[in-house]
Amino acid sequence: MYFLEVTGRGVMFSGRDMELLCRWRDEGATAAIICRGIKEAVLSMEEGEPPRGVRSCQGWIEREIESARERASGGHIVAPHEEVAPEPAPAPAPPAPVEEQTAQPAPTNPYEPLLKDVLAKIEAAGQACTEDTLRAAYRDAWRATRALLERDTLPDPYGALAGIEDALADGYFRALDQQKQQAIADAISADDPAGLAMMSPSAREEHLAARRRSFLMREYGLPSLLD
């Protein structure tokens, strides 16, 4: 259709024309490049003597193909199927000099001996415990103490350990069956029933928690973390 438009002449492509078109296509020439070559051929020929086929435009088409290759390669004409050697990669920059620094010792927890001693107590008591529900209380206490050991600063280690000891006693007591819990409560109440009755609810709860902790240490082997 384009050939008819620019030449005014209908054409049936010959076998040679088709061979040229296939070769140019394999070489990477686009239809636009071939059409430009045909147009250049028409403009270069005398008026009234348009090209009779693609073969008649071969010289102009191939010049357009070469020009397109040159533009694509930045001025270097790349022949069909020619392999372009890659540019060598730039040499890596030398590493920057490393300034020598005095190795600083890693900060250590000043209460490490105390906390490790507490961990050992919890581990020993937990291993001696045969009931898994009770061992869960030891596991929680161990994790809480380990977290203290991993801290760089610890403003009040004894207060933190007292809180862990309270939580351990409370968790252990709650893991006991109802019968054992009631027996402990009865034993505590029998020691000072009048005194408990005179306490406020909050004071009574604190007193009972402390008494339960002492009872568990004495009767069940619960470790004291602050001794």
Automatic annotation (TrEMBL):
Compositional bias of kind Pro residues: 87-97
Region Disordered, residue ranges: 84-109
Protein name: Uncharacterized protein
Superkingdom classification of source: Bacteria
